[in-house]
Each structure stands twice: as structure tokens, then as C-alpha cells.
Amino acid sequence: MPIVNINGADIFYEMVGSGPAIVYVHGGYGGASSTVSPREEQWVGKFKNSYTVVTYDRRSAGRSEYTNTEHTLDVFVQDLRELIERLGIEKLILVGSSAGGPIALKYSIKYQDSLIALVLPNTSARVWNHPGRVDAELELDRRYGLLKEHGPEGTFDILNNEDIDAKPFYLLNVGPNPRPPGIANMLAAKELEAKKLINGLSREDKVSYYIGELRNQAAYIGSDLRDLLSDIRLPTFLVHGDMDTQVPYELGKELSDHIYGSEFVTITGAGHGIMQWDEATSAIKDFCDRITSQN
Questions:
Q1: Do residues 212 and 31 touch, judged by C-beta distance below 8 A?
Q2: What is the mean pLDDT of the chain?
């Protein structure tokens, strides 16, 4: 299992294929379900014959280390930078999906000369700091305050008791989130299996994963990158489902409007998790093929 120690954390990564490099920053906020049932990036198979594809688990997510330190977007950016340098990648296409989008955006502003292009699936410059998440961001701030006051063990006991049988507080309550045919059942089965595995974890692991997810989420409190986006001057491609209930479609359009010369593609009828949609990944590959042929 390929793991590198960078920026004070053991980071899991995979690198497959050959050709120009694509580095993917995943979405989500880590936690137990991402670790007991790691993501399967099915879209990689479409790219690996033409590209070197690097995927990795962000700190406190998946198979990477759950660190007992503050998580910030700048920490995530530094993790990414050190991983890219350790792998010897000089030029790349950076893909930042959902919660990975702000990380990719900040990386692009700081290390623009290292990028061939930027791809932003179902994401926003302000994934928490927008009208649809006012209450959720206030609740997240409260929860992070508990961590500062009571520490990991005490916070776990308080919040785990509050969350019994409750829907995750950060999911927007705006209707169903469409999935491609066959994907919804697979994800439901995977979620059920993850719950069974989580129930069997030790208390120590449950606390670590729960607090790691909270630290991941808290990295986004108050973050709004719109004022910085005019500095991005490189080929940029955005793709968004018009039925996305977690990063609303309007936020994707807003992001595109703030990036000079960006391309925006709408996937009609698609919800969040756009990398599961073949139409979306085909559009991304077409963009990557076009851009790399010009370099």
C-alpha cells in the first residue's frame, strides 16, 4: 500500500497509467465510512491509458492518517504540494471535486505555473459559506467549539449522543439527489456495509474517525474564495449536475463566472457525485485531450 509521510501526515495514494499527469482531489470530509469502505474511483479506468492518474486520500480521510492537529485549507494545499513534489510531477492537470474544489482553487492560485489546466466537478468557491448552509455552518462552528472546549473524547460523547438516528446535519434538505442507473443501489449497499463495520470498531477508532471528520469540515468555516479567482489564468473546465442538492447548481455557475475564460458544462438530470456520471467524465476527458494536444 503506497503511503508517504508528508507535511506531518502519512498520506495514502495510488498512481496508475502513463502520459500527462492528472491529480485528483476528492470530495467529502473523511470519517469512519471513508476508511472502513474506501472510495472506488471507477472513472480512472477511462483515463489511465492516456494519462498518469494520481488519486490520494486527504488527511483524516480514507486510508491516510488521522492527525490530532488543526485542519485548514492551507494545510490541505501543502499536503497536496508535497505529494506532487514527492512523486516528481512537474506539470499536471488538477481536478478538485466537491469539497476538493476549494483545495484545488487555492493550489491553483499559489502554484499556477505548475498546472496545465484546472478541472472543477460539482464544486464551489464557498461550499459552506452560502445562504443554503447558514444554519449548517453555525452548527458546525458550535461543534468545533465543543472540540476546543472538551477535547476529542468529550466531544465525541456529546455529539455522538446528539446524532443517534439523526440525518447528518450538513446535508441540505432540498429533495432527492439523482444518481446514474444502478449506482444508487450500489451506494446504498455500501453504506449499509459501512455502518456494520463501524459498529464493530473500537472506541478509540470511533473517536479518531469522528473527530477527524469534524476537523475536515471545520477547515471550510467562513471560506469564500471568490475574490481570489480573478488571479486564475489557465484553461479551466467546470461540470455540474442541474439537480445537485449538496453543491447547488447556481454555485457552480457562480464559480465559472468568476474564472476568466472558463468552460462550463451542465449534465441534465444529474445530482451530486458527478464523477459517477459517464457523460460528465467523458466531457472531462475530452477537455483534457484537447488541452494536452495543444501543449
A1: yes
A2: 94
Residue 38: which of 177, 179, 193 has the closest Cα?
193
Angle at 131 between CA 251 and CA 217, to 5 degrees: 80
Task: Look at residue 100 in the predicted model and tell me its pLDDT.
Answer: 98
In this structure, the number of other CB atoms found within 10 A of the CB of residue 168 comes to 10
Number of domains into which the chain is organized: 1
CB-based contacts of 166-173 (< 8 A; 24+ apart in sequence): 169/136, 169/139, 169/140, 170/128, 170/133, 170/136, 170/139, 170/140, 170/217, 171/246, 172/132, 172/133, 172/136, 172/245, 172/246, 172/248
Q: How far apart, in Å, do the first and last CA atoms of the chain sit?
A: 33
231, HSE (Cβ side, Cα atoms, 13 Å): 13
Element of type H or E holding 141: helix 134-162
pLDDT of residue 178: 85
The H or E element spanning position 117 is strand 115-121
Longest Cα pair distance anywhere in the chain, in angstroms?
Answer: 55
Q: Domain range spanning residue 260?
A: 1-295
* CATH number for the domain harbouring residue 163: 3.40.50.1820
Contact yes or no for 116/92 (Cβ under 8 A): yes
Distance, in Å, from the CA atom of 209 to the CA atom of 66, rounded to the nearest integer, reads 7
How far apart (Å, rounded) are the C-alpha atoms in residues 105 and 96? 8
CA-CA-CA-CA torsion for 260, 263, 267, 268, nearest 10 degrees? 80
C-alpha cell at 285: 476527458
pLDDT per position as a tens digit, 125-158? 999 999 999 999 999 999 999 999 999 999 999 9
